[in-house]
Amino acid sequence: MAEHTNAGTKILVVDDEPNVLRMVSYTLQIEGYEVVTAQNGLEALYKVQTETPDLVILDVMMPDMSGVVVCERLRKEPETINLPIIMFSALSQVSEKVKCLEAGADEYLTKPITPEELVARVKSLLGRYRQLRHTQQRGKVLGLMGAKGGVGTTTVAINVATALMTQEKKAIAAEIRPCYGTFSSQLNLVRPKGLVNLLDLEPGTIGEREVSMNLTNLPWGLRLLVGPQGVAESREIGPQHLERIIKVLASMVDYVILDLPFFPSSANQSAIQSCDLVAIVIEPLSSAMVSGSVAVEQIRSWGVQGRCLGVIVVNRAPYVTPIKLDLIGAQLGTGVIGVIPSASDVFISAQQAGLPVVIYRPACDAARAFTEITKKISPVEGWVGEIY
To answer: What is the rounded CA–CA span in Å between residue 366 and residue 349?
Structure first.
């Protein structure tokens, strides 16, 4: 029963005494925890980066670097500032305990300790941190996926994210593509940093600092995670990388807008399953309905159902006989979240200026349509609003 309950929870045990490592590791392993070990401070810092443990049990007295110094370093890093840490020492003086707590330790245990008390302390601390994470606000994640190429998904992503910024919301637009992304060409960016640098890192080492260093900051406040900029930067995106990147992005802002390609892959599945809402971007044409139906079927096979899936209709040209919105919803089996009217001249001029339409011409019908889409988003109960 313990193995099932604690499976997947990883604990790093740090001590320079092999006997202590064996005893503590065995005690935790029989409770079902995954255990990794380190025998000095430098190794501990490395294991925290590469193994991403859920909790650290840290000896105070070690020869090269004390546990106090290790704890202080972990508390200075954004990605480990909230990592649960138990300090473990043969010293029982109050002054030693105070020193460890001031360094950022959550608990201070004195050696020797019974296996029962050790397990109880670990369970208690992990439980408190899980409850804290559960109550913390997480930014909403909107995934945009074109039913076919060239439908305008990137334009929608940039403008929806910008419309959120105009409403004093913090937003990041992320271009999640294994090959060439077009954020840069739409906004006239020169050699932007971006996604490819994060994909070259180990997933466990990706934190807010690493993500922030590879974001492009735009003058109106929007931040972008730009996709690959050429063949040499093309990368296969693994689901672990993507899950980690999206998690970090969502911890940084109110809204994350993902620009996703449409094709079946483990990375796309991971991205979709990280979203609060998925919107298929489609043109109101009969030829687009086939692609749209396939996209809906694929996304639903990944577990996205009900109001978590919708459609954004983009009128890229003044079509003579566009499909009516109620027929689009009925044929695809999902609601229409918003409709972007035809405004090709405005979009072309905005792109030449390197600006989203919402900034370039905020009073036009297209800009207002993007703003209306953002009103479907509630920061409290998820995605709400009448889907017609």
So the answer is: 13
Which amino acid type is present at position 203? P
SS3 65: coil
Closest listed residue to residue 300, CA positions, set 266, 257, 340, 334: 334
- At 380 the pLDDT is 38
Q: Mark out the alpha helices in 104-238 (DSSP H runs).
A: 115-135, 153-166, 183-186, 195-199, 208-213
Mean of pLDDT values over 275-303: 90
pLDDT of residue 1: 41
Burial 121-136 (b: 16+ CB within 10 A, else e): bbbebbeebeeeeeee
What is the set of domains in the chain, with CATH numbers?
2-134 (3.40.50.2300), 140-383 (3.40.50.300)
**Contact predicate 85/106, CB 8 Å:** yes
- pLDDT tens-digit series, residues 202-248: 988 888 889 999 999 999 999 999 999 988 888 889 999 999 999 99
Give the three-state DSSP class for 132. Answer: helix
- Tokens describing residue 165: 């910024």
The 8-class DSSP code of residue 188 comes to T
Q: DSSP per residue over 19-57, as a string? A: HHHHHHHHHHHTTT-EEEEESSHHHHHHHHHHH--SEEE
Q: Please tell me the distance from the alpha carbon of residue 87 to that of residue 116, in angstroms, as a whole number.
A: 17
Q: Which residues pair with residue 278 across a beta bridge?
A: 143, 309
State both tokens at 242. Answer: 């993507």
pLDDT at residue 266 is higher than 70:
yes
Stretch 121-136: mean pLDDT: 77
The length of the chain, given as a count of residues: 388
The answer to whether the peptide bond before residue 264 is cis (omega within 30 degrees of 0) is no
Instruction: Kindly list the distances between the CA atom of residue 27 and the CA atoms of 35, 58, 255, in Å, as whole numbers in the listed order.
Output: 10, 15, 42
